Amino acid sequence: MGGFSFRNFTFMFIVAFLVWSSNVETCYARRGRHWRQTTTSSASLYKKKGKSHHHNNGSKSKPKHSSPPSMPTNPPRKGYDDVPSSTIFDVRSFGATGDGKTDDTKAFQAAWAAACKVEASTFVVPSQYVFLVGPISFSGPYCQHNIVFQLDGTIIAPVDAKSWGSGLMQWLEFTKLVGITVKGSGVIDGRGSVWWQDTPYDDPLDDELKLIIPLNKTSLRYPPIPLNSSLGGGKMPSIKPTALRFYGSFNVTVTGITIQNSQQCHLKFDNCIGVTVYNFTVSSPGDSPNTDGIHLQNSKDVLIRSSNIACGDDCVSIQTGCTNVYVHNINCGPGHGISIGSLGKDNTKACVSNITVKDVVMQNTMNGVRIKTWQGGSGSVQGVFFSNIQVSEVQLPIVIDQFYCDKSKCKNQTSAVALSGINFERIRGTYTVKPVHLACSDSMPCQDVTLTDIQLKPIQERYHMYDPYCWQTFGELYTPTLPPIDCLQVGKPSSNRIQGDHDQC
Ligand SMILES: *[C@@H]1O[C@H](CO)[C@@H](O)[C@H](O)[C@H]1NC(C)=O
Ligand SMILES: *[C@@H]1O[C@H](CO)[C@@H](O)[C@H](O)[C@H]1NC(C)=O
Ligand SMILES: *[C@@H]1O[C@H](CO)[C@@H](O)[C@H](O)[C@H]1NC(C)=O
Ligand SMILES: *[C@@H]1O[C@H](CO)[C@@H](O)[C@H](O)[C@H]1NC(C)=O
Ligand SMILES: *[C@@H]1O[C@H](CO)[C@@H](O)[C@H](O)[C@H]1NC(C)=O
Ligand SMILES: *[C@@H]1O[C@H](CO)[C@@H](O)[C@H](O)[C@H]1NC(C)=O
Ligand SMILES: *[C@@H]1O[C@H](CO)[C@@H](O)[C@H](O)[C@H]1NC(C)=O
What we know:
The active site is at 336. The chain is mostly beta strands. The chain has helices spanning 2-20, 105-115, 193-196; strands spanning 88-90, 99-103, 122-125, 130-132, 136-139, 147-151, 154-156, 170-175, 178-183, 187-189, 242-247, 250-255, 258-260, 267-270, 273-278, 281-283, 294-297, 300-310, 316-318, 322-332, 338-343, 349-363, 367-374, 378-394, 396-404, 418-431, 436-439, 446-458, 469-471, 473-477, 489-490.
């Protein structure tokens, strides 16, 4: 790959530059700034040695290169005049206190700057400590490959408005890395309750709520989250951050850790290729607004498995630009289920293909498996397999909604994201509102929708209940279903609109 050798060259160049002018931090955790290469130097190229596994207390390791005499003073115990003198970078060695009160952001930045320079280094957040860390970016692109972020302690977010400026899209961010693993038994705690209560009262949380009509009107669907004025200070910005976001990276792994009480989305992958998430936990209250578990966007070759997700919005949300996604062995609930979309908002084009979601247990979720698109979009969703989904007291187990609209009313439009090859198989259990809701576009009916082995029984008498519903949905019933679904139209739509060029993905 051309980019690869270029990256190697760039790395060697940067290291050479460093050897000559040590006070520059090539790659560093930053707050909203970008690395800029300011000067160049015709230094001879530094040849990387084999990895050494010294302890990182800097007591040994004489410099083997003509390195400059004045090294960075922080941290003092780090022997990185001999890059790479170690592969372990413990935030405590860089001045982090881990007392849960002192702002340890700078120590994390310093530890990252050091870890970044060493291939396959380990950035350590030790157990038994609580680190208060503000918004931070663990940024490539000049970092070495295959860094491990070993998280065994707890990282907590600041809860004062001042720390967030006018609002940020994320709290902890990893960008432009190749081979990044976040693992361990640690916890990332967004302490989001100070944000949740700021959600405007009439801000609709999920369009499907419109289908859910409680029989007892006096029981509020979403009781207001109690305000805790002893927490934080000042009003939080209206833009809420994602707790942990990966952007523009290759081969990302997240495992072992827990993310809880995120301000908004818990874990997000954006423009990533090769994502693996397993043995991962999300834990937030069911009424925390917009707290998606895992959010995927413009990412491909994604595997999410063996994880427990409890949150206030979609357990897994698959957005535009995603392909080759495999999600299995997930416990979801509370939450809004597993969704593709919403897609096509504001007349945008969306492309999603080859998505498999199987072996999922959903408990007390709003939706089970769902595809949601806005009117007026273009592009397509092709090749979706929802298989072996066990639902328990789920309001709407099977949903296609091509009229998604989070306002009270949306304009009717003819164009739509085209849906085809959507397979629902072995979806069993209990529902509380409507077993099947398949609402497709008039101008762009859903094609090749198959239903196989659907067994859904009504339970409870808390909501108004409905029969299965289909609109402009074409495909096949491969087995009898419970309840019987006679609204699916067999075969292909007759007046099928030809997909325009602008709809092609
Ligand atoms: C360096 O670390 C090793 C292992 O943790 C320890 O035995 C040694 O005493 C330390 N040396 C110094 C100078 O801190
Ligand atoms: C899952 O992660 C936890 C740490 O959170 C670890 O103790 C456990 O061994 C992991 N289990 C598997 C099967 O990897
Ligand atoms: C309706 O809900 C209220 C509050 O939860 C409860 O006190 C009341 O008994 C309920 N009424 C019925 C008919 O279930
Ligand atoms: C409010 O927050 C404080 C500080 O975290 C906590 O000690 C207290 O229990 C909270 N009160 C309520 C009602 O949640
Ligand atoms: C990602 O990992 C795969 C499998 O280990 C490897 O073949 C591929 O080269 C890696 N991608 C990059 C960009 O390093
Ligand atoms: C679909 O995605 C799976 C991974 O979920 C992958 O193994 C498979 O090769 C993909 N199929 C195509 C046709 O790309
Ligand atoms: C949009 O279409 C729906 C269904 O065909 C119809 O009931 C509704 O009145 C239309 N709304 C507008 C604003 O035209």
